[in-house]
Design goal:
With 724 residues, this protein is of the alpha+beta class. Among the domains are: 196 residues, Rossmann fold; 91 residues, Immunoglobulin-like, CATH 2.60.40; 109 residues, Sandwich (Immunoglobulin-like); 99 residues, Immunoglobulin-like (Sandwich). It is 16% helix and 33% strand. The strands form 11 sheets. A 6-stranded mixed β-sheet has the order 8-5-9-13-14-15, with helices on both faces. Helix 1 packs parallel to helix 5, helix 2 packs across helix 3 and helix 10 packs across helix 11.
Length: 724
């Protein structure tokens, strides 16, 4: 190659360094960035092949230092300083593929120091520095925002570009007002963790600098029971649920390694990442932990880089340590990330926020950024003013919200979240003279969406009675359209006072639907019915989830297994009095009848009941399967066996090769295994001649719920021979 092709006068705001294997995916990202680089008009985006860099800066030899030398040249000799660098391809410490991996990862090499060869020392004492490639001052911290996409196949490359583009395209929504905080607890595999006093207090420091306009989703492991020997399945479910609901930012502080978070494995890679369902609602996630970003192993991916590159789910970008990490500075770095990404009113990218935070803390040399550093976090981009009718949230009374956006032509949506007082938690550490003191968000008392037309903001909600007394109630407002979003919060609101003059004594109305039909006693539903419950009351529905105020239902009076529905309930748009929930039943397939007992409360404490006694049928897809004829060929008699998913009317027909029906038998068969006997005689009772015949088994479901519906019938055709 030409050793001077890059030693020219040129310009670049963003450089993508990639391998020929990923040319087309990288080209797609380049073309996207040419029109979508925040803060830059008509940006210059360059895509450079790694082999060309070797030809220009390392005499054609594969050398990671060549990348640094090329970027130094660009930053100093091209038209203006470089803005962002993206390494588009995986890398590992096995530069020469001595492991004989059939698909080696070293498309864009990593930079490591140390020469230890024993495995434990290799991973602990051979640091991996991604910042090296843009470190031009010798402090091993990047001087230009840099990130990596650790793709190793063309499919991965295409998926991750699609993920980035869709994240940045009309992808705003209420999920972007959430911040996930996950601190480790006091336990390790041996008992009490030596660092028990660190993680929770550290996360409280981070929580304290998050602006009030954001909603914090605190998944604190201390709130979940330990299941011997050392697991917390409820905490794992809560972490996965938080990710599935989406968030703008996530922060973890605690123990971890390349495949798991915490000793209790509340997130395990790759299995848990594979079941995530947060389609394109991906946060930027910071892991203040050891080795979660240990991506340069030969045959395994790290949790952090897999979370970023997993198609349509996971995280849009991650920041994680490639080796062990000191625990004191991870808190400082976390606080800086919050300040630089959330408190800034300027439009900055995630890479900018990481770069500034590392520089401000002089920490994070071994922390790798996975993702495109030019991806924006979309901070507040539309301003608005709003007022509330009362700073005292009086139980049973209405609160109104009025306001105006800065742009009088703004048409979009307003999401209102209301919370009762913060919960102050006191958690003693077992067998230690130490106690955690931390705060958890109050219960949600209202969540609703309202239209904004021509910039006018108008909304209302009702306050539940019997809230705890305090002055930490909170309202957060989030507005958005296709391309802009804005936030505002009201805190220090007074709670615990009720309207003694309220005249509402009428309970809510409850209506339960299936397939658009209002359910009544005696009607029939499938065992896997998806039901919709519509709840309405002039004072609104209590959604706090308090034990004495929950929305729930029970099946056949089984109060041990109460189905809480608060998180399934959503108010209708522009309403604070009417909403609905959806729930998929999973009744036993043998169940013939069921009693469903629903209850809810309005915000004045009036309780409503709805009891339905229904018939049940097996709602699985109708199937005729495992059809088998034996013996075949036969001399005198034979059997036809098969399985049915439902009780069915079955017809067995035997035909000659010309299509003439010579025998037919019909019967009602039950679900499961069935067998039909045939004595080899035709309809007249005569034995049939030797030869080839055809048979047909036709099954039609007899359940009344299948009447006039498609999919209630199945047919199987086969060949049979008579040979005497």
């Amino acid at each position: 190659g030409n050793p001077y092709s890059l030693r020219i006068e040129d310009k670049a705001d963003h450089i993508i360094i990639t391998h020929n294997k990923f040319y087309y995916a990288a080209l797609e990202l380049k073309n996207w960035r040419r029109n979508h680089l925040i803060g830059v008009q008509n940006p210059a985006v360059k895509m450079v092949m790694i082999d060309e860099i070797y030809d220009n800066f390392s005499w054609g030899l594969a050398d990671p230092v060549a990348i640094r030398n090329f970027l130094y040249y660009v930053d100093n000799y091209w038209a203006y300083p470089l803005g962002y660098v993206l390494l588009f391809g995986g890398g590992s410490y096995d530069y020469k593929n001595l492991f004989e991996n059939p698909e080696p990862k070293n498309y864009i090499p990593v930079f490591e120091t140390g020469d230890y060869v024993h495995f434990q020392a290799l991973m602990n004492k051979n640091p991996c520095y991604e910042d090296f490639f843009t470190d031009f001052t010798g402090d091993t911290l990047c001087d230009i925002p840099i990130g990596r996409l650790t793709v190793v196949t063309e499919g991965e490359a295409s998926d991750v570009v699609d993920k980035i583009v869709k994240y940045e395209t009309n992808n705003l929504g209420v999920w972007r007002n959430k911040i996930i905080l996950i601190p480790d607890d006091e336990f390790d595999k041996e008992g009490i963790d030596p660092l028990y006093s660190f993680h929770v207090p550290a996360m409280e420091e981070v929580s304290g600098v998050i602006p009030d306009r954001f909603d914090q989703n605190k998944v604190y492991l201390t709130e979940y029971p330990l299941v011997p020997p050392h697991s917390k399945p409820e905490a794992r479910a809560a972490v996965i649920d938080a990710l599935n609901k989406g968030a703008l930012l996530g922060i973890f502080l605690g123990h971890g390694n390349f495949q798991q978070l915490t000793h209790e494995m509340v997130l395990y890679s790759p299995s848990d990442i594979g079941i995530l369902e947060n389609d394109y609602k991906e946060p930027f996630f910071y892991f203040g932990s050891c080795s979660v970003g240990d991506f340069d192993r030969v045959e395994k991916e790290s949790l952090a880089d897999l979370l970023q590159k997993k198609e349509r789910r996971g995280a849009i970008a991650t920041l994680a340590c490639t080796r062990t990490s000191g625990y004191n500075s991870i808190t400082t770095l976390g606080k800086q990330l919050v300040i630089n990404l959330l408190e800034s009113n300027n439009s900055i990218t995630i890479g900018d926020g990481v770069f500034i935070s590392k520089q401000n803390t002089n920490f994070g040399r071994k922390y790798a950024y996975f993702g495109d550093p030019a991806t924006p976090l979309f901070p507040d981009s539309i301003g608005f003013q709003a007022t509330i009718s009362s700073e005292t949230l009086t139980g049973g009374k209405e609160v109104r919200i009025d306001g105006q956006t800065d742009d009088p032509k703004f048409n979009g949506f307003l999401f209102v979240s209301v919370y009762d007082p913060i919960r102050n938690i006191v958690h003693p550490v077992p067998n230690k003279p130490f106690t955690y003191y931390y705060n958890l968000p109050g219960n949600s008392t209202f969540q609703g969406i309202f239209n904004i037309t021509n910039g006018n903001i108008n909304a209302n909600f009702f306050v539940p009675t019997e809230l705890d007394s305090g002055n930490t109630g909170r309202i957060s407002l989030y507005i958005w359209d296709n391309s802009r979003e804005g936030r505002k919060g009201f805190d220090s609101l007074i709670t615990g006072l009720d309207d003694t003059l309220s005249s509402d004594t009428i309970p809510p109305e409850i209506e339960i639907f299936h397939c658009g039909k209002l359910l009544e006693d005696g009607m029939t539903i499938p065992n896997n019915a998806e039901i919709v419950g519509v709840l309405e009351d002039e004072s609104g529905i209590d959604i706090t989830g308090r034990d004495n105020r929950s929305i729930y239902f029970v099946i056949n009076e089984d109060y041990i297994d109460i189905k809480k529905l608060n998180e399934h309930f959503f108010y209708d748009i522009n309403s604070s009095t009417r909403g609905s929930f959806e729930y998929a039943l999973t009744l036993d397939t043998t169940m013939k009848t069921v009693e469903l007992r629903f209850t809810c409360y309005d915000n004045c404490g009036n309780q409503a009941f709805e009891v339905l006694n229904l018939n049940v049928f097996n709602g699985e897809e109708f199937r005729l399967s495992d059809v088998f004829n034996f013996p075949n060929p036969f001399k005198e008699t034979t059997y036809f066996s098969f399985n049915l998913s439902h009780r069915s009317f079955v017809i067995l027909s035997i035909f000659t090769i010309t299509g003439k029906t010579i025998y037919k038998k019909d019967m009602v068969c039950e679900p499961g295994f069935n067998r039909i006997f045939w004595d080899g005689r035709d309809a007249d009772g005569d034995r049939i001649a030797n030869g080839i015949y055809f048979y047909k088994i036709k099954a039609k479901a007899t359940d009344e719920a299948f009447e006039n519906q498609r999919g209630d019938e199945a047919i199987y055709r086969g060949k049979i021979a008579v040979a005497r």
